[in-house]
Amino acid sequence: MSRQLEREIQKRRTFGIISHPDAGKTTLTEKLLLFGGAIQMAGAVKSRKTSNHATSDWMAIEQDRGISVTTSVMKFNYADFEVNLLDTPGHQDFSEDTYRVLTAVDSALMVIDNAKGVEAQTTKLMEVCRMRNTPIITFINKLDRDGLDPLDILAD
Fold this sequence. Notes:
The protein is of the alpha/beta class. The protein has a single domain, classed as Rossmann fold, CATH 3.40.50. The protein has seven helices and five strands; from the N terminus they run αβαααββαβαβα. It has a five-stranded mixed beta sheet, sandwiched between helices. The protein is globular, with a radius of gyration of 16 Å. The protein starts with a helix and ends with a helix.
């Protein structure tokens, strides 16, 4: 492998955004894109009211059901790095797509809903990450709502 190719590979970081359904993966992905400068307005994933919007949940079935059916790939630049975000389906019916994505990521960002805590799909995804030695970043979402004690969620 050439030195130039190695340098290009070292400049890329790929994160799989994973969780159980309705934990807020797509919304978190959008916020990361917003703060990374890739989109210009919050709400663009769902409303598409800007010309510079994310391309997550673009299929009609995804918009009708309010869930991701396939993995969406989005990116932004941060410092000297290219950050790739893979917004995966949370629903169990589409989990094979998520499992495949986990073979190609540097880390997984596990989103957990503060009100629901750790669910069966959360546990399954954690097991897959551990089996593949994929580092996991845990993000507890929806802390602005009534919910469980975040330390209890982490203990689970």
